[in-house]
Design a protein that fits this description.
- By secondary structure, the protein is of the alpha+beta class.
- The protein is built from one helix and nine strands.
- Strands 1, 2, 3, 6 and 7 form a five-stranded antiparallel beta sheet that branches. Strands 5-4-8-9 form a four-stranded antiparallel beta sheet, with no helix packed on it.
Amino acid sequence: MKTLGILLSTAGLAGVGAFALTATPALAASPNQATDAVAACSGARSIASAPMLRDYRPPSWGTVRLVRDNCSQYWAEITMASPLVANAKANGFVVQYGGANAGRVLSCDSSGGNGSVIQGQRTCRTPKVKGGSGITFAAIGREYHNYGGGYEEISENATRRTR
């Protein structure tokens, strides 16, 4: 009888191990599903752009772009012509028109963005915003310089509103 108990308990442990092994592939599929979702939202393309001008005159010091992916997510990106110098920074903004969040403005500094452009850098990106029926977006780029009294805006431009 004691041998039968040991045999059954060993079989029970083997069953738990078999269950754990069959459950493991399901857990391993979870990261792949996230990768598949990211791949499904690829196809990012610039749908509007504008030069960043000081005093609204050439030369261009950078570009602001409104970008959309295959999942109808929108964001702003700015690319400066050269790395920023000390006491300079730049920021991009995505503005939503229409929908429940009409008037929402998110910057590169917002959660999900990669931070404003600072000394030695050239680019930044805002968080992605989900679009929908009747919703349009615009991107704004602003450049700032600190002449000793805090940062002051020295250039700005915006893309057209689009979806």
